[in-house]
Amino acid sequence: QVHLVEAGGGLVQTGDSLRLSCAASGLIFSRYSGGWFRQVPGKEREFVGGISRNLGNSQYADSVKGRFTISRDNAKNTMFLQMNSLKPEDTAVYYCAASSQGNPYNPSSAATLYDYWGQGTQVTVSS
Question: What digits encode the pLDDT tens for the residues 90-109?
Answer without folding.
Answer: 999 999 999 999 999 999 99
